[in-house]
């Protein structure tokens, strides 16, 4: 299992825009470097990427939820 | 002599003590949000307090130096790395030409500062090297740094560093719960007694809506006295006929979510300012990370001036 951690505080969004599809869903196959969401802080959106390849097991933060640096956003099972 | 920026970080900008004397024409004083931390970084490398530093918010830059350099990192607790090896914050660091500086994750606070001996040598604009990004003024081409930028570093001016390490008892604290002292006014008379009581008794939580211009807090609504709005004021009871905003003043649009105006704030507008953060506590606000519980404690002008004198004592201890 590999945790995807937010390096910064802000609001976590799973979609690139309100009318768009989520970057990734639970159960999806994920490549290392793939974006799984964005965190908004100071009117800027920073992409959150997975360091590991595997299956996206679960999100630990809701869409629109608040995160702090070091918070786990999602978990990936490697392989 | 220069730093080559490989990754810019979230919002890395050149800042100094600020640009004073132009607020009347709408140009804010700007400068480092956390003035004490920035000043301590300068002290460690033997600069003057007027030299410019790099201010990093949340995510720091990755850069290399093209010559030997002396730097220091102060402010929010963060892992500092030179060529991938962790080094100490709050102390003087010697870099060799080609060394790469990078940063890990913040473990508290919001901003940290990189000082280099000789200072960041961007042009002085209206008396300051501070970046005012909204006005595209000062700093490095009037903006936050980007990958590929070559940031000029000045020649060391020579007096030598005052201390090698900032002693722990002098380092500012980055707490999850803070008390910020305020001076009521100029428009506190627009709140009901209950409204004022709510302002000074509630535990306000800093929202992620916080930047160099202002910081927004969530908490209970504030109650305003009813009135027939005068000509020139908006229809909401939190509206006034446009007036100048003091640095650190607190406005409460619609009676919801107070905003503390900070270094890059607009100089005027039509929201009633119910209180002003005292100058000694502006750095405390600057250090607050989203989620920080904040208590606003009313003080008198005499107490505010005494706190300012105390803050000056800490700065003198560093520069002695």
Basic shape of chain B: elongated
Tell me the strand order in the biggest sheet of chain B.
12-19-16-17-14-13-20
Report the largest inter-chain contact.
A-B, 16 and 14 residues
Give a quick account of the main beta sheet of chain A: strands, pairing sense, barrel closure: 4 strands, antiparallel
Radius of gyration of chain A: 11 Å
Our measurement of the CA-to-CA distance between the termini of chain B, rounded to an integer number of angstroms, reads 29 Å
Helix percent of chain B reads: 10-25%
Structural class of chain A: mainly beta
Q: Proportion of β residues of chain B? A: 25-35%
Uncertain runs of chain A: none
Task: Give an overview in words.
The complex is a heterodimer of chains A (79) and B (320). Chain A is mainly β and 79 residues long. Chain A is 0% helix and 48% strand. Chain A has no helices and eight strands. Chain A has strands at 2-5, 10-13, 29-30, 35-41, 44-49, 54-59, 66-67, 72-78. In chain A, the strands form two sheets. A four-stranded antiparallel sheet of chain A has the order 1-8-6-3, with no helix packed on it. In chain A, strands 5-4-2-7 form a four-stranded antiparallel sheet, with no helix packed on it. In chain A, 32% of the residues are buried. Chain B is an alpha+beta fold and 320 residues long. In chain B, 14% of the residues lie in helices and 31% in strands. Chain B is built from four helices and 20 strands. In chain B, strands 12-19-16-17-14-13-20 form a seven-stranded mixed β-barrel. The longest helix of chain B has 19 residues, at 301-319. The model of chain B has no long low-confidence stretch (mean pLDDT 95). The chains are: A mainly beta (79), B alpha+beta (320). At the A-B interface, loops of A face loops of B.
